[in-house]
Amino acid sequence: MRIDERVFEAIACGEVKNYSAGLNFICPAIDLSARKLRQKDRVSAKEYKKFLREYVWIFQYFTNPGFNLKDFKFPANHLSKTSRFEAESADFADLLYHAYRCSLAHGDPIDGAFEFSESQDQSADRITKIKLDGSIIQFPPTFYWSAIALVVFCRSNNDVETNSQYYLSWDAHRFPVDFCWGAEDRLRRFFKTRPVLTVEIDTANEYPRTIIAS
Q1: Distance between CA 66 and CA 200 in Å, rounded?
Q2: Which residues neighbour 22 within 8 Å (Cβ) at sequence distance 6 or greater?
């Protein structure tokens, strides 16, 4: 499948909140984007995760503006032995690669290290949570859309041309996908003019709750 076909399939899955199925499309699309950027036929696990970390700023803004996703470490026990990960802690790139991309590539069962959880607080649309629930990390769905945004805006995909009605959202702003392929410089300028939101992490409860406040 072409990159644009994978992205559109992932968007369709996201619209019906079938995030695990959507990652079957978006993880290989991230791989293809990294290969195009590095001008290689294939990228290693190290290169794949390095690529994700280079674009952590997209994950930061689309997942939780103000939350330090770059330096946040998760307990490695959230990755099972089948994930081939042996470090004591893991960042977002480790989770995405070892829990999904690696499992898909090797035909292993999906690790189940993290899942996506809709907020139950319908009165506060600016509150998102990253919850440690036993052996599972629950991310807000915005993390899923961040992965799609990475592929769309990555500069290696500026050669992609599409004609669709799809768009990505950030707050009240809409980014038409057809006009955003490879437009990472434009996205940087957009976020540069937006104030950074502050985040309070309440660890008094049974899980860290990230609260975004303007």
Answers
A1: 9
A2: 9, 10, 11, 12, 13, 14, 144
Phi, psi of 128 (to 5 degrees): -130, 160
pTM of the model: 0.82
Torsion of CA 101, 110, 147, 87, to 10 degrees: -70
Which pair of tokens denotes residue 115? 């899942």
For 56-80, how does the pLDDT look when each residue is reduced to its tens digit (9 = 90+)? 999 988 887 667 778 777 766 555 5
- Tokens coding 157: 């995909």
Beta pairing class for 136-139 and 131-133: antiparallel
List, in order, residues 6 or more apart from 24 with CB less than 8 Å away: 104
Task: Look at the block and give the residue holding tokens 């330096």.
Answer: 71
